[in-house]
Amino acid sequence: MKIACLYGSPRKKGNSAAVARHFLDRAVEGGGDVRSFYLNELGPRGCQGCNVCKQSRETCALQDGLTDVLEAVYEADLVVMASPVYYGDVSAQLKAFIDRTYSYLKPDYIFLKNPSRLPQPKQLVFILTQGHRNPDWFADIVPRYSNLFRWTGFAETYPLRVIDVYQEGDVLNRADILSEAAELASALVSGSTVPSKTAR
After folding, report:
1. Domain count, the chain
2. What CATH number is attached to the domain comprising 81?
3. Is 18 inside a domain boundary?
4. pLDDT band at 124 (very low <50, low <70, confident <90, very high)
5. Is residue 197 part of a domain?
6. What's the rounded Cα separation, in Å, for the pair 170 and 133?
7. Taking the alpha carbons of 136, 93, 13, 27 in that order, is the dihedral positive or negative?
8. Domain region containing 59
9. What average pLDDT does this structure show over 94-118?
10. pLDDT confidence band for 197 (50 / 70 / 90)
């Protein structure tokens, strides 16, 4: 199984990155082939609204640090997106990539039953960590983006939402979350039943 992991945090040792690495460690044990990208190092640029991907080519016209990421996600069987909640949303780095997935949509996509150019529906693990301890805050992020991801061509979004991890490394003390990440990785790589999705 080809896996593409997108680290959206500018902090390599941040909580979202820690959960993602724990997931990937188990995925590799199960035979997963992982490519990882630290988006902050790639100088990501957002969609320019040029619509070239709807007119004269089938890929994004920009040639920058996200070009290889878009190709890796296109080829992957499973995608991991990991981000802290920054000011009520995913990080700017991950949002730039998400905006660029506009290039995965076919021309006249808004009228099509199957608008995606992706070769097959992909599974997506969506890791979100937030310092705020009230789970009602920012709870809209997962359903909002899940709908967008489904439209873009992801078959299913498996959220790992972690609440009340304020300091760097806090999540390493959350055995429940780390166990959930490992169990999800094992299930997805092996093709077995996926454990119930929870937000904590």
Report:
1. 1
2. 3.40.50.360
3. yes
4. very high
5. no
6. 13
7. positive
8. 2-190
9. 96
10. low
